[in-house]
Design brief:
The complex is a heterodimer of chains A (112) and B (111). Chain A has strands at 4-6, 9-13, 18-24, 31-37, 43-50, 55-58, 61-66, 71-76, 85-92, 100-102, 106-111. With 112 residues, chain A is mainly beta. In chain A, strands 2, 4, 5, 9, 10 and 11 form a six-stranded mixed β-sheet that branches. In chain A, strands 1-3-8-7-6 form a five-stranded antiparallel β-sheet, with no helix packed on it. Chain A starts with a strand and ends with a strand. Chain B has 111 residues and is an all-beta fold. In chain B, the strands form two sheets. In chain B, strands 2, 4, 5, 6, 9, 10 and 11 form a seven-stranded mixed β-sheet that branches. The radius of gyration of chain B is 13 Å and the shape is globular. In chain B, 38% of the residues are buried. The chains are: A mainly beta (112), B mainly beta (111). Chains A and B meet through strand 4 and strand 5 of A and strand 4, strand 5, strand 9 and strand 10 of B.
């Protein structure tokens, strides 16, 4: 079945780079997403990558996709205290439903 | 910027009460979704809709019901709330094959 896994916690110092990792099991994924959730808030789409791409860069965010290993990562350059949040990896299998399968989320704590 | 709105944002309600969580989107998206997220846990799909008059159950069984009478509106109803329904409920919408956008979420506490 479909499964998305993430490590639960990451702590970095302000100004350092953060790398959040995600593995998924379904090779038929069409899109893979990173969402950010701040305390008490909904999900904010950060970025996404189509399954035929290896890398996508958007300002401080870099997404790397290794389809062979079914591994997705999100790198945040120059991490700021405002980046502290839970980051969810998600995949969509496409088709009529277009539903998302989420990971458990990684709590990123940025130390000043 | 996605325009999808949920009300109420926070609700504390007694056991046995009927509640409706509202979700509206102004983007004309055909597909809408409800996800449930317990604190610190994964999100799970509980309902989705392909369009008007279409509703389907998601992966996680839920005692809630939904309706889709208008494209922009996808309310979720609990006929008799219980403490086990305490959770965050997230509404989302998308166009076919496109990104899914989420509302801010409704935090429900049943006491």
């Amino acid at each position: 079945g479909e499964d998305v896994e993430q490590s639960l916690f990451l702590s970095v110092r302000e100004g350092d780079s953060s790398v959040i990792n995600c593995t998924y099991t379904d090779s038929s994924s069409t899109y893979l997403y990173w969402y950010k959730q701040e305390p008490g808030a909904g999900l904010q789409l950060l970025t996404y990558i189509f399954s035929n791409m290896d890398m996508k860069q958007d300002q401080r965010l870099t997404v790397l996709l290794n389809k062979k290993d079914k591994h997705l990562s999100l790198r945040i350059a120059d991490t700021q205290t405002g980046d502290s949040a839970i980051y969810f990896c998600a995949e969509t299998l496409g088709g009529a439903t277009n539903k998302l399968i989420f990971g458990t989320g990684t709590l990123l704590a940025v130390q000043p | 910027e996605a325009d999808i709105y949920q009300t109420p944002r926070y609700l504390v309600i007694g056991t046995g009460k009927k509640i409706t969580l509202e979700c509206s989107q102004t983007m004309g998206h055909d597909k809408m979704y409800w996800y449930q997220q317990d604190p610190g846990m994964e999100l799970h799909l509980i309902h989705y809709s392909y369009g008007v008059n279409s509703t389907e159950k998601g992966d996680l069984s839920s005692e809630s019901t939904v309706s889709r009478i208008r494209t922009e509106h996808f309310p979720l109803t609990l006929e008799s709330a219980r403490p086990s329904h305490t959770s965050q409920y997230l509404c989302a919408s998308s166009e076919a094959g496109n990104t899914i956008y989420f509302g801010e979420g409704s935090w429900l506490t049943v006491v």
